[in-house]
Amino acid sequence: MVIVNERPVSYGPIDPVMSHEIFVISALVNGEMKKKFSFLVHNQALIEQITQMEDKVRRRGMRISDDRIEAFYSTRLPGIHDIRTLERHIRKRGGDDFLKMTKADVIADLPDPEEVAQYPDEMSVGNGAFKFSYKFKPGKPDDGVTLKVPLSQASEVSPHQLDWMVPGLFREKITALIKGLPKRYRKPLVPVSGAVEIILSEMEKSTNPLLSTLGTFIYKRFGVDIPASAWEISGIPEHLQMRVSIRDHRDRELQSARDTSILSRLPNIDKKQPGNESSIWKTARAEWEKQGITMWDFDTLPETISLAPNLSAFPALSPAENGADIRLFRNLQEALESHRKGVKKLFMIHLRKQLKLLKKDLKIPTSMSSKTIDFGGPGCVESAMFETLMVRFFNLDIRSEKAFIETANAADHAIFPEGKRLRELTGEALSAYHHAMQFIHQIEIRNKTTAAAALCKRLATEMGALVPRDFLERYTMDHLVHLPRYLKALEIRAERGAYNPDKDREKEALITPLKAALKKSLPAITSSASPDKRRVFEEFFWMVEEYKVSVFAQQLKTHVPVSAKRLDEKMREVERMV
């Protein structure tokens, strides 16, 4: 007779052996138990630690099997089949230490400590550290290495820095990269395993992107010139491509990708702010932000402040109409850009009397006015010179009153000689530009229906690209000093080209591949390009200008040694870099 239908009853008295087995496997091995015993928490943490080692090195078998864990509990808990009997047994033994595992109990195959050290748990950024997460789940979205980056600090992470963070992946990653190369680049590196061994043992870690360093090393060590475009990044296994996870202040994932450019494509954090984060920012702004600053009468301004776990703010000066404000930014790069401008504004207020005299010193003489027409007139050129000096002296990341005063005193003495030199160089560049434009225009008028006229049109366009309207903003004084010589070379080329077009075309054939290389490389010179690549590209640009002088106006001489061979080497250096 059924008295109470489907009422759960203890299975222990009915089948003690089977009950014991079910309890050990389900409750202790699988952890399917609501009550958290201290021994079970300890053992699960220890097992998870070993499992994480397996995830790091992507190799199972380091921890003991579930069968051995079951045997560990069964031998220590004979006849125990539920929580009640387990608690009674623990009390009888005077505690649960006899159920706590040691590493020796859990580890079946201890990994080499040096191997595990190749997989760090975190990377240092500024004053903090971001965690790495390792998963050995082939085919799953989070397989491989994930770097967890708080949204508010994402702008502090250099994408190129990530290439070097997990040395344990280098062997497999470099092997995959070399195997993915086109045959003409891969063949000289066969056997690949041997080339990889040499790379791992001899290539030094760098602050440059891994691909740039790898390409340069292979070129120097093996004589194989591999352009950056030849590396097939998308073809290597996903677990070798670091996954970046952008997290909010509660450590929830906002977005993730295996492309490190995600660090510069952050979600708009000013929209839909969680209520408590908004209150944190409101409190912080009330404490830190200040308006109407006209002098450095405040404490040293830190670059970063922590508002909460995973939530940082970046204090910075911001230029205002009559002074500067202190504002809190959510993005480091935006904060630095604003701060430099705010510092510049405070310097301009602090040194306003001196800068008023400086503006008078930068006046364009009346005799030079006609030569400024292509650049907006005298007023525009004077303003450009003044702004160039302001950026040169005052666009700085200064954080303390002491540094501000020291810089102001130094600028007070140096800015007038520097302004005089800039005015002289600007005048020479304007005069040379004006003369070259008129000179080439006269040759064009005299040769309206010949090939010389077409050459003059091309040179006029080239001259406009060499000396654009904002040339004072673009070029340092070290480069300004050479503009008259480059412009004179254009005059000489126009004159000789008009007389002997065939000879000019022969010489142009030497320059055309270099101009094509500049044009090809220019789209890659973005904010995401490494600083070294931008520097080398600029060196290549000026080397091409010097080479033009050596080809078309050799009598003017070059500032640095230059040749077709040197240019080819520099061009290939640009192409190898990321």
Describe the protein's topology.
Layout (H helix, E strand, L loop, with lengths): L15 H14 L8 H20 L8 H11 L6 H11 L9 H4 L6 H4 L5 E4 L2 E8 L8 E7 L8 H4 L7 H10 L3 H4 L5 H11 L7 H13 L20 E5 L5 E5 L17 H14 L1 E4 L11 E4 L2 E10 L2 E7 L2 H19 L1 H10 L16 H17 L6 H46 L4 H16 L4 H4 L2 H4 L2 H17 L1 H21 L9 H22 L11 H13 L2
Parallel strand pairs: 3-4
Antiparallel strand pairs: 1-2, 2-3, 4-5, 6-9, 7-8, 8-9
Q: Would you give an account of this structure?
A:
- The protein is of the alpha+beta class.
- The chain contains 23 helices and 9 strands.
- The strands form 2 sheets. Strands 1-2-3-4-5 form a 5-stranded mixed sheet. Strands 6-9-8-7 form a 4-stranded antiparallel sheet.
- A hairpin with a 2-residue loop joins strand 8 (311-320) and strand 9.
- Helix 15 (378-394) runs antiparallel to helix 16, helix 20 (483-499) crosses helix 21 (501-521) and helix 20 (483-499) packs across helix 22.
- The protein is elongated and about 120 Å long.
